[in-house]
Amino acid sequence: MQPTPIQQGTEEWLNAKLQTVGGSEIYALVLGLCTTEEIKAVLPNYEPEISYTSPLLIGLKFLYGQTTKIHEINKLYGNAMEKPSVDWFNEERKGVAKCEFTRNFHIHEKYKQASCSPDGYISLNGKIQDFSTNEDITVENGLGLMEIKTARRQAGFQEEPALQYLFQASWNAYVIGLSWFCVFITFAKEYDYESELHKGKRIAYAELGLLEKIRAELDCKTFFYKQNNGIINLCLLALRRFTEKIIKSKNLEYSKKWIVFDFTTNNEKIFIQEKSIIGNLADSELQSQYGNRETIENEAEMLEKRYKLILQKKEIDSEINEIEGYFYKVIQDNSQVIAHAGEDYEMSVLPKEGGLKFTPTLAKKSLVEYLTKPKID
Question: How many CA atoms lie less than 13 Å away from 294 in the CB half-sphere?
Fold first, then answer.
């Protein structure tokens, strides 16, 4: 491991984060800069999963020091749950494994754009098993890396961690030279416990060391894995392609450096974040210098198509609002309304602070398949 890691929370750490790719970002680079064929060569059963960020947002961080803000309660909650999760893990694995909590930040010795913020280092006294291969992990495999995630309740229904988590933990282990890792996931036992009120209470419990009160509201899942060299090769390929784009951008004018990256058009939330940052980078002096121009090639058709789609979207939004309005009325007498879609999945609507929550309560992929499959009369 790196002999002199940087400490999280310091100015040195903040500056280092702006010029490195961390574990929470690497999956976004793989998703955006590697082909499906390249990914499936390593993960044959791969199905794309939404990432927390995008190559463009990471590029904006590198090029301009611009980042998006995390919702404050989620940031506080994620940090507060780290130490209690380590204590929880140590209780469950007593005599077999022990995790040492850390606030270290590491940069890879060779790839200076690669960094990680591990949640802990795990030492073994006994034997554990790789979740995907059932291979033994023993003391001979050395220290392991701990990755702690505070997930939505749906995570409790999943057989394996999200790809975002697996890539993050794998990358973090690689950066500090560890051969295996653990993903420790906590999630609410009940939907009510996902509210900001309950998250705030658990932050207070964490500060007071009241682990038993936290465990009364949360469940957890623990997954152990040996390092997958194929995943690391994908990560390094994505990092190389990202670095090439950053180098290419250096020859462009300040306000145009970001155009070497594509927008994330298949994720509305991230697309809005990208547009928000880029909207503040426009060079009005340069724009006025070149003035107006007529559309070229298929630009006119694109503009016309956009307006037609907006009209369609208004109609769709109106239908969605009608359905939501209906359930606002009928939910007054029930704590939850459930629609069973086959044997393996279901949808539900339940009241929450400030409105309603519509959600699939089991596997999303199966639900999408069910909803899009042609119905036979």
Answer: 2
